[in-house]
Sequence to fold (79 residues):
Amino acid sequence: MSLSFDTVTGTAAISPATAQPEDVFLAWLLWLPRDADLLEAASREIHRIDSRAVDADGPRQLKALFTVLVENLRSGNGP
Fold:
């Protein structure tokens, strides 16, 4: 995994050259403040991915992870 977490600063970092969609998603979750609105934040990320109109596997997989999170939150199955 190319994700590292600094326990002193509480930040996550990913090596961009080797980042997998799952690593990016996990880093995003760890980066969010405790009181963040997950539904709103994940929806923003989906919009950000869509606005870049990149047709590649990585962004598609990352969008799928955010989409599953949004669907689970809307159906009451989220955190």
Notes: The longest strand covers residues 3-6. The beta strands are 3-6, 11-14. The helical segments are 21-31, 38-52, 57-74. The chain has a mean pLDDT of 85.
